[in-house]
Amino acid sequence: MVNSLQSTTTLHNGVKMPRLGLGVFLVEEGEEVYNSVKWALEHGYKSIDTAAIYGNEEGVGKAIKDSGIPREELFITSKLWNGDQGYEETLQAFETSLNKLGLEYLDLYLIHWPVPEQNKYKESWKAMEKLYNDGKIRAIGVSNFKEHHLEDLMKDAEVAPMVNQVEYHPHLQQRSLHEFCKQHNIQLEAWSPLKQGKLLDDPTLTDIAKRHGKSTAQVILRWDLQQEVVTIPKSVKQHRIQDNADVFDFELTEEEMKLIHDMNKDERVGPDPDEFNKR
């Protein structure tokens, strides 16, 4: 039952992952990210999602430490950047992230992009399997992987990915990928669930929001939850962080779910994973 910020989904290795968390993409290191994480934790969030390339792991770690919340109650994710892919490089990059965060282990570590030009993600995955088997990471996964990347990775993997974090919102529903992930017990997770704010004035969503006395953002996040997709909206404003979590006291009807279902355009705001080679 998805009825609170403490609601979790169980990954295929038995680890429980919160269904809603805070993302900190494009949140500045220092006071901005510190406050964002601090407010989220004070409001009851348990899941924080960062990445090496965001450049804000230290601020995230400081807010976690200062919160006084027992480490085992939190779910912390970071990601391996493209230029750090490869076996030894992954082991080193992981240690760097862990040190910056000031943590002894991560709950989830993801390969950030498949990076077609390098094609090193299998080497990186071997390193992540080692870290997982050594107990340094509770769950391992990928980000921005399409079906063919997942198939390729799983051919040689000893441990199947537990999570695939991708761009996912009403204009990019990635239904075949979602279905593939369900079949293989890979939890789909949404980044940019609000399409970087571009959906907030959409008339279909605005109409549904009015019916429930909610905001369009809350409707989208509720839709994610009812689609069994983990979601990590980002905000640096305290009231928005609180509002984004206020999605557990209403439910979208089948008709409303269908209206949102019909909004799909296969339209991205981020790069296509088959083409993204940034180092």
From TrEMBL:
SUPFAM superfamilies in the cross-refs: NAD(P)-linked oxidoreductase (SSF51430)
Superkingdom, taxonomy of origin: Bacteria
Binding, substrate: 112
Example of a GO MF term: oxidoreductase activity, acting on the CH-OH group of donors, NAD or NADP as acceptor
UniProtKB keywords: NADP, Oxidoreductase
Record-given protein name: Aldo/keto reductase
Site (Lowers pKa of active site Tyr): 79
Transmembrane stretches, start-end: none
Catalytic residues (positions): 54 (proton donor)
Keyword Plastid: no
Keyword Cell membrane annotated: no
UniProt domain NADP-dependent oxidoreductase: residue ranges: 31-264
Family: Belongs to the aldo/keto reductase family.
